[in-house]
Write a structure and sequence with these properties.
By secondary structure, this protein is mostly helical. It is built from 15 helices and no strands.
């Protein structure tokens, strides 16, 4: 099979993984600009209340879309494994099944998101002053679910076969579209937070269209043929087996974050705005780490498909060390610059105080978060997606929620909310390390 894209199962490990991760990093950087541009423009044009509305919407968006994103990542593992094994027919069935699932999921998510957003915001304890704008933002955002989900599906397909460059190009274009429309809708037409949501929807649909054109016009073996989009039972079974635990894992994390957000909401709109601004900064800071973990999953999947077991082990060790070092360097930088960065979103002293306080608790523990993500990426690439799901369920959901439920009524301190993250990162890292050392997570080559 002729492959113009360099496969991950040959060549220097550091070079393959780094060159694959770099476009993902820059692509994720521009994707992160969606929410950042929204927040910067909303915070400076519309004020702290509107910024709180946009910020509080993030946890709910991830809850409803994170599950489907996990399924898409599972599909990527399946496609990468078939690609590495040179099983073209199975790979094509997996690709077209994944797109069919994305279309159905996008339609369902549009209805679910638009109908349930006001009720979930109320359950989260969102202040009454923020709910109207949050509802407007979410309703418009979820109207574009098909475009958002298909974009993630298309990117997952491209990355599974080793193409991380084209998603970068399309995200740059869509980010420019988002910036221009934000300034037009909010700064010129004065449409409020609804305009910010509409700009995001249009730019996401545009990026999905760019990816669709790339996949349907390529001459490679992974070409997408619209007339072949349908469900194939064998491919769907594989995608569900690996993707469902990943989707549940994302939902678990998102649910726990909703509980955390609810506790932050109880401290008022200034706390919501400050912590929301920090979350955006953290999202940027952690992009190099998430980029490497995504590369790690594809690397493990392709190498196991090609039966390169020893190479997969060496790549796993390289990925773990690299992500931890990067994470700690980023954490130190954010720790030092937090007052200046937070104030760029909202110069209100209370907002800055809340954001900086959260940064000074979390950032120096980034190496633990990176370790957990790297381990989850390795096990997911090896087809053992249940392992990270159960570990995240135990520590990032049950322990996190239980700790807050007990500690907040006793202390009435937002510092407790900040410290719950390093605590649960530490526990999950220990659990992952024990499993990594004690188990035979690599598949049996004779099976």
């Amino acid at each position: 099979m002729a492959k113009s894209i360099q496969p991950m199962y040959s060549g220097p490990i550091w070079k393959r993984m780094t060159y694959f991760a770099l476009p993902i990093f820059f692509g994720s950087l521009f994707q992160q600009l969606y929410n950042t541009v929204d927040s910067l423009i909303v915070g400076n044009y519309l004020g702290s209340s509107a910024l709180a509305a946009v910020s509080s919407s993030g946890s709910l968006i991830f809850l409803l879309i994170g599950f489907l994103g996990g399924i898409a990542s599972g599909a990527g593992v399946v496609i990468a494994r078939y690609f590495g094994a040179d099983n073209i027919d199975a790979m094509r069935r997996a690709i077209h099944t994944t797109v069919a699932a994305g279309l159905v999921a996008g339609v369902l998510m549009t209805g679910i998101g638009m109908l349930t957003s006001p009720y979930i915001l109320a359950l989260m304890g969102t202040p009454d002053s923020v709910i109207p704008e949050s509802t407007t933002y979410l309703t418009i955002y979820f109207s574009g679910s098909v475009g958002f989900i298909l974009y993630n599906v298309f990117v997952g397909i491209l990355q599974a076969v080793g193409d991380s460059r084209h998603p970068l190009y399309y995200l740059i274009a869509s980010s420019v579209i988002n910036l221009v429309l934000d300034l037009l809708f909010i700064g010129v037409l004065h449409t409020g937070v609804g305009g910010a949501a509409l700009a995001t929807v249009i730019s996401q649909v545009a990026s999905a269209c760019f990816c669709f054109l790339q996949l349907t016009r390529t001459k490679e073996v992974y070409r997408l043929r619209p007339r072949e989009i349908r469900f194939h039972r064998d491919a769907l079974a594989q995608i569900i087996r690996i993707g469902l635990p990943s989707g549940v894992q994302n939902s678990i994390i998102a649910f726990a974050n909703l509980v955390v957000q609810s506790n932050i909401n109880a401290f008022g709109a200034m706390a919501m705005a400050g912590c929301g601004a920090y979350n955006i900064v953290e999202g940027f800071g952690f992009l190099p780490i998430t980029s490497f973990t995504m590369a790690l999953t594809t690397f493990i999947s392709q190498n196991l498909g090609a039966n390169q077991l020893e190479r997969a082990k060496k790549g796993a060790r390289f990925g773990i060390i690299t992500t931890m070092v990067l994470a700690e360097l980023v954490g130190v930088v954010i720790f030092l610059l937090a007052p200046y960065i937070i104030s760029a979103f909202d110069s209100d002293p209370q907002v800055v105080q809340f954001g900086v306080a959260k940064a000074h608790v979390s950032t120096l523990f980034f190496f633990l978060l990176a370790f957990s993500h790297a381990m989850a990426a390795i096990f997911r690439g090896a087809g053992k997606a249940l392992v990270p799901m159960f570990i995240m369920l135990a520590f990032w959901c049950i322990v996190r929620v239980s700790f807050l439920t007990i500690a907040i009524p006793l202390t009435h301190s937002i510092q407790v909310v900040y410290w719950v993250y390093p605590l649960t990162w530490s526990l999950s890292s220990v659990a992952f390390l024990i499993y990594y050392k004690a188990s035979h997570w690599m598949p049996d080559p004779t099976a």
